[in-house]
Every structure is written in structure tokens, then in C-alpha cells.
Amino acid sequence: MPGRLPAASDFASWLQLAIIPPPASQAPTNILLLFHGLGDTNSSFTSLGQNLSLPETACISLQAPTPLPFDLGGYHWGDDIIFDQTSGKMDVDTGFEKVKKVIGDEVIQKGLVGQCGYQTREIFMLGFGQGGMAALAAAASLSSSASLELGGVVSIGGPLPSTIDAASKTAKTPILILGGSSNSLITASNVTRLKGVFESVQYKQWSKAGDGMPSNPEQMLPIMQFFASRLRSRKGVPEGSVEVG
Fold it and tell me: Could you give the CA distance from residue 110 to residue 104 in angstroms, rounded to a whole number?
């Protein structure tokens, strides 16, 4: 039986989230979980879910569980807050043990699979910066603990967390990781580490500095192509689309 449109009551009451139905009252065949960056809230990614308008796909924009200290505003996905003593900036790679359990257990296993009837193959994740790192950590954990394959993970400027080691059996969940051509956290060594954990990794380097969100159709194209190759449809596969796995 196909999954149904999730409701807030399907998830733990302490989770802050927004649910965006599929366009044009379509059936929600797929779920896309959205994870904002460090210091943000889920409101901007709620708008992103609406703008993506992916066919037969409901989006859930999740807010990180922990507020930043010192009245800085916004939230973070890490286990801790660490400031770089040289730059004064917050470190994005501070452990993801707590949040990968929230994503994997509370959101995916209990909520989407247990309450709403989805298969893990129908569940996708997209995250920016630290949100992308949280998504990768959760996907790796689900694969190692339960051998589960998700539909796919897109990480924009978020490398694999340093605490995750290469597995003896690589995870089947396909990954798309994107970053800038300079001043990027997505280095060659980080891509190599990803390939040691996940079986299928695509890397797209934008011809721009930094790892900001895509700002034009050309930068957005690889993300849409990735989704087109993996999203499931009750109406059949659109002409020209190829499903991988």
C-alpha cells in the first residue's frame, strides 16, 4: 500500500517541521526531507520545498533541534558548539550522534515508515552546509545499522562528517554532493571519503567561489537531474527518465 501524506501528528511533538504537499494535488509517492544550514531555521527551506515543486513528492522542512547560544538566533544540527579561536567562526563538524538518531529513528523509521507507510527507497534528503552533513550522517547510520537504502541524498556544501569511517560494506543510498570551485568544504579528499562509505557518489563542482545555495538554473540542473533519475511515480516513468537502482 502506498504511503500517505504525512501530518505533524505522525511525528514526535517536539519536532519542529513544515509539510509541503505535492503540486497540483498529486499523490505523495515520494518524501523529500529538507535540512537548513547552521544558524538558520526551517522557514527558508519551507519556501525551497514549495519552489522545487517536484512531481508526486511531499517535502518536509525540518528545523535543527538545538538553538544557538548567546541569543545568536537560529539553530544547529551538531552535538556541540565549537568556535574556531583563529577565525571566531563556528565549526560545522561537531558530531552528529544525536541528530542522526532523530532523523533515522524518529522521522524516518517511526514517522514515515511506521506511521505513513513509506518504503525507505521512497525517502530522499537534501541539506545545505551542516544540514547536508546531518543528512549524510543519518544515511550512513541507516545503512550500517539496518542495511536500508534511501532514495538519495543531496548535500550542498556539506562534507561527510569526520566521525564517520569507511564501512566494510558500502551503503547503497546514492549521493549527490555539490560545492564551489574555490573556498569550498568539498575537497577531493572529502569526495574520496564519501566513496568509501557510499556505493554511488556523484560530485558536481560549480564554477563559482564558495558553497552557497544554487542561484540560477544552470547550478540547479544537476540536482533536478538527480531527482529525475530516482523519484518514483505512480503514473509511470516520464519519457527520457532513467531510474538508477
Answer: 9
